[in-house]
Write a structure and sequence with these properties.
The structure holds 2 protein chains of 2 kinds.
Chain A: H1 2-15, E1 19-24, E2 29-32, H2 34-39, H3 44-47, H4 52-55, H5 58-61, H6 65-72, E3 77-79, H7 81-84, E4 104-113, E5 116-126, H8 128-164, E6 168-173, E7 178-181, H9 184-189, H10 193-196, H11 210-222, E8 228-235, E9 241-250, E10 259-266, H12 268-312, H13 319-345, E11 354-356, H14 358-370, E12 375-380, E13 387-390, H15 392-409, E14 414-425, E15 444-452, H16 481-491, E16 495-501, E17 505-515, E18 535-539, H17 543-555, E19 559-563, H18 566-578, E20 585-589, H19 598-608, E21 614-618, H20 624-627, E22 636-639, H21 644-656
Parallel strand pairs in A: 12-14, 18-19, 18-20, 20-21, 21-22
Antiparallel strand pairs in A: 1-2, 1-5, 3-4, 4-5, 6-7, 6-10, 8-9, 9-10, 11-13, 13-17, 14-15, 15-17, 16-17
Helix pairs in contact in A: 12-13, 12-17, 14-15, 15-16, 18-19
Chain B: H1 5-30, E1 35-45, H2 46-53, E2 60-69, E3 74-81, H3 82-92, H4 104-129, E4 134-135, E5 139-144, H5 145-153, E6 160-171, E7 174-185, H6 186-199
Antiparallel strand pairs in B: 1-6, 2-3, 2-4, 2-5, 3-7, 6-7
Helix pairs in contact in B: 1-4, 2-5, 3-4
The chains are: A alpha+beta, B alpha+beta.
């Protein structure tokens, strides 16, 4: 039996992977196993019989001797590696181990005999391998946590990008269901992001745009590597339509469940601005054409009107003749109004703006236009309205056009309401106005005029076109009324827009720039020709104008010399001055095709005679030189066609005005 | 077994002394301030342990078992819920990345902690009773609470009692709750309670 124990002991000693030693109660070593021989520098023969604390004095310096005291007092002692690192200083068993001493877990067991501690048993386990692995695992976990943190931050970063972008980012699955909508959807379309989840995106798209949108969606699903843009109208939460520019691409990381990520940008304002620009371009080109026609028309009318006036001065006419001439003159004046309307289109049709009491203008125009009709007009015009900075004639025309339209929309009669109010735009940005419609006005004071009728209303599909030139729904309409109104308001740096409900009526909104200032006095009207004397030089490329103008001037007492262009006029002015028969005034046509025009002729005349008194005349009554003639050196201005009293008044004023 | 309020107060005081020593050992070991509090002690039959514990702790638990023998014999168990064990081990160790599982070194740490607590407690009792106790090697285990409680209930003869000591570890601004359970033969417990009288 003893031989058996010895055998077991021998094998344990040879193969046990633990360090084991025994001491007596004085810590004299009485057993030192093979493992310890292998890992310490002591053989059993050297260790046995020696005192443990003398062999390993660092046990005292590291306060580990206290644990032996405890064991000798009968306590079981556990020494975890993480708390104690090691018990005995032993070289690590693993080559290149990061720790200078072999990591150990140890137990110190009291050896008892009849309630007395007679010694200690120490068991040492080499935990180098485990500590290395646990360290690696810790590093791995640390790296994972770092990666997780980086991912979390990255996710938060991209989430914040998505949440703060003004574009809408959506994910649509292959069935057209919304899987994700970024928070900006609320700002643009009014839906909360969660509200759209699992809704069919097709429900939100305008029926006319649906085919191209579904086509894009299907195309993207079939062609994963492509990016495709499309423009479509989306229904907002309040049922308004928003034009969105969408760019779609299939989500690359979900090939098994294809979904499309769509980035949408609200281009409603851009589209509206584009529409405004196109309308302006259209108006401008038409304006050039209309201006040319009006110019020629005015020249012809000058001749007709002048000749009618001259004929009317003949003493031998019968009453019937005079009646016919009056009718002819009236027709000429109506033709002049038409020419004036055409001219409003002309490029740079600069209005002659003055501070105007708009309430008076609105009342007078409405009373005159609606006089004798079955329409009642209610006014809401506060007394503290600012003055509008407008060309009274042009705004009169705008109001007139709007009222005629309103009247025609109510063939059985009804009510028109005209309101005016002071408004202040506080920012350069849009004013939230009609269901978010863009109002392109700079900041400042404006008078807002609202004209409401109870007519048939304007169908929604043509609402966008009513300001286009030549667009009309009336069999006898010219298509110029609202286009003229639009052009005039634009030239006033104002804004006009409309809202309409079928069978309820239309509302026109006008914004006109306002100023604070005194109300100007009305001008006096001269009805009789003012006679005069002296030599007048007239220049015009149209013979019929030259002829009638010469006759008119002679009829009121002047001597007349004619010229067909600037060069001829310069020659004649130079000769007259040299001969001592200077001209008291010069009437110059503003535009002469292929020759010197009025402005260029005046520039050269001033070199001959700086005191030359020149009057500018033109069928382009809205030309900037006509509106601001003094700035260009003219003494007076007369728009074609003119009647004898108006012409005589201008000449009289110019001749009697002191030279500069 | 009935224990008077005075006896219970004396027991609580004794355990506080023992835990004070244990806390000092742990503080020295870890280099940081460790506090141990005993808010409550329950003495009950083994059958009643379940009703005291199952409302407070559930699922997987970490336990350190240690047998002791001598004139007073029984078993000491430090019981922590698994999350609490992970947290306590992490708090007691330097430069550890927080994890949610116990590795072998964590288990060693808890074994040493359990050993310190049980030694302090039973050592104090031994001193009081002027007896010498022998201890087995402590054994750390991760197990389910229910089988453990079932094993307690096997005491059909009703000769064993449990002293359940609610233990609170406080360190690094954190608190971990655990239970130190001493399972004693009724005679051993009676001997202990009688000795408490001497303290008064």
């Amino acid at each position: 039996m003893i031989a058996g124990w010895e055998l077991i002991h021998h094998h344990l000693d040879e193969h046990l992977d633990l360090g084991i030693f025994l001491t007596d109660s004085h810590l004299q070593i009485i057993y030192w196993n093979r493992w310890l021989e292998k890992h310490t520098r002591y053989r059993a023969s050297e260790a046995v019989g020696r005192n443990l604390l003398e062999m390993f004095p660092e046990l005292i310096s590291r306060s580990k001797d206290l644990y032996y005291q405890k064991a000798l007092a009968g306590q079981m002692v556990m020494l975890a590696h993480r708390f104690h690192r090691y018990l005995l200083q032993i070289t690590p068993s693993i080559t290149n181990h990061p720790m200078p001493q072999m990591p150990q877990s140890s137990k110190i067991v009291p050896i008892m005999e009849k309630d007395q501690v007679i010694g200690t048993l120490t068991i040492i386990e080499d935990v180098s391998e485990r500590v290395l692995r646990e360290g690696e695992l810790q590093n791995h976990i640390q790296r994972l946590k770092k990666t997780e943190e980086t991912l979390r931050r990255s996710e938060a970063y991209y989430r914040s990008l998505i949440e703060n972008t003004s574009d809408i980012i959506t994910v649509i699955d292959s069935e057209g269901l919304v899987c994700f909508a970024s928070p900006s959807v609320e700002r643009v379309l009014g839906y909360s992001p969660g509200e759209l989840n699992n809704r069919q995106v097709w429900e939100l798209i305008h029926p006319e745009d649906l085919p191209k949108f579904t086509e894009l969606h299907d195309f993207l699903i079939r062609n994963p590597d492509t990016i495709s843009p499309v423009e479509a109208r989306f229904r907002g939460r309040n049922n308004s339509w928003h034009t969105l520019e969408a760019v779609g691409r299939i989500l690359p990381d979900k090939p098994e469940k294809p979904a499309v990520v769509i980035n949408c940008r609200d281009i409603t304002e851009r589209k509206q601005a584009e529409k405004e620009r196109l309308r302006m371009v259209k108006l401008e080109s038409l304006g050039i054409l209309a201006g040319g026609i009006a110019h020629d028309f005015n020249n012809i009318l000058t001749a007709i009107l002048g000749n009618i006036s001259l004929t009317g001065m003949e003493p031998y006419l019968t009453d019937a003749d005079r009646e016919r001439l009056n009718e002819a003159e009236k027709a000429c004046l109506r033709a002049q109004t038409l020419a004036q309307r055409l001219l409003t289109f002309a490029l740079g049709g600069a209005p002659v703006k003055k501070p105007t009491p708009i309430a008076k203008l609105l009342k007078e125009t409405a009373n005159l236009t609606l006089c004798g009709s079955n329409i009642r007009c209610d006014f809401f015009l506060p007394e503290d309205l600012w003055l509008a900075k407008v060309d009274e004639g042009q705004i009169n025309q705008v109001i007139n056009n709007l009222l005629i339209n309103a009247q025609q929309a109510m063939p059985s009669g009804g009510k028109i309401t005209i309101r005016a109010e002071n408004v202040t735009m506080v920012e350069d940005a849009e004013l939230p106005l009609h269901r978010g419609k863009y109002v392109p006005l700079p900041k400042g004071k404006y008078i807002k005029i609202t004209i409401t009728d109870q007519g048939v209303g304007i169908p929604p599909q043509i609402l966008d076109k009513i300001f286009d030139p030549y667009f009309t729904t009336k069999p006898q309409g010219s298509g110029l009324g609202l286009a003229t109104a639009y052009s005039i308001i634009k030239n006033h740096e104002g804004y006009i827009t409309v809202e309409s409900t079928a069978e309820e009526g239309s509302v026109f909104f006008l914004y006109l720039p306002a100023v604070k200032g005194a109300i100007p006095f009305p001008e006096e009207v001269t009805l009789e020709p003012i006679p005069g004397q002296g030599r007048i030089l007239i220049m015009d490329d149209e013979d019929i104008v030259l002829d009638v103008l010469r006759k008119i001037l002679i009829s009121i007492g002047y001597q007349v010399v004619s010229a067909r262009d600037g060069d001829e006029a310069l020659g004649k002015y130079q000769r007259a001055k040299s001969n001592g028969h200077p001209f008291v005034a010069v009437i110059l046509d503003l535009t002469v095709p292929g020759g010197l025009g009025g402005k260029e002729t005046l520039d050269q005349l001033k070199r001959i005679d700086p005191q030359v008194k020149a009057i500018v005349s033109s069928g382009y009554s809205d030309n900037p030189i006509m509106a601001d003639y003094e700035k260009y050196g003219f003494y007076g201005v007369i728009s074609k066609p003119y009647r004898i009293p108006e012409l005589s008044k201008v000449i009289h004023e110019v001749i009697t005005k002191k030279s500069d | 077994m009935i224990i008077t309020a005075e006896q219970k107060d004396a027991l609580l005081e004794l355990i506080n002394i023992a835990f004070g020593r244990a806390a000092a050992s742990l503080s020295e070991l870890t280099g940081q301030r460790v506090l141990l509090n005993v808010p409550r002690i329950v003495i009950c039959s083994m059958k009643e342990v379940r009703e005291h514990l199952e409302n407070l702790i559930q699922g997987e638990v970490a336990t350190v078992h240690q047998m002791f023998s001598g004139p007073v014999a029984g078993e000491g168990i430090l019981l922590l819920d698994y999350g609490g064990a992970v947290l306590l081990s992490g708090l007691l160790s330097e430069n550890r990345v927080p994890v949610d599982r116990l590795d072998q070194s964590d288990q060693e740490v808890l074994t040493e902690v359990g050993n310190i607590l049980l030694n302090a407690c039973l050592g104090t009792f031994g001193n009081l009773l002027e007896i010498h106790l022998s201890f087995s090697l402590p054994r750390m285990q991760v197990e389910n609470l229910n089988p453990l409680l079932d094993s307690f209930s096997v005491d059909t003869e009703g000769v064993r009692y449990a002293m359940v000591i609610l233990t609170t570890f406080s360190l690094r601004d954190s608190t971990v709750h655990g239970y130190l359970i001493l399972v004693l033969a009724v005679a051993s417990l009676d001997l202990l309670v009688q000795s408490l009288e001497k303290l008064g």
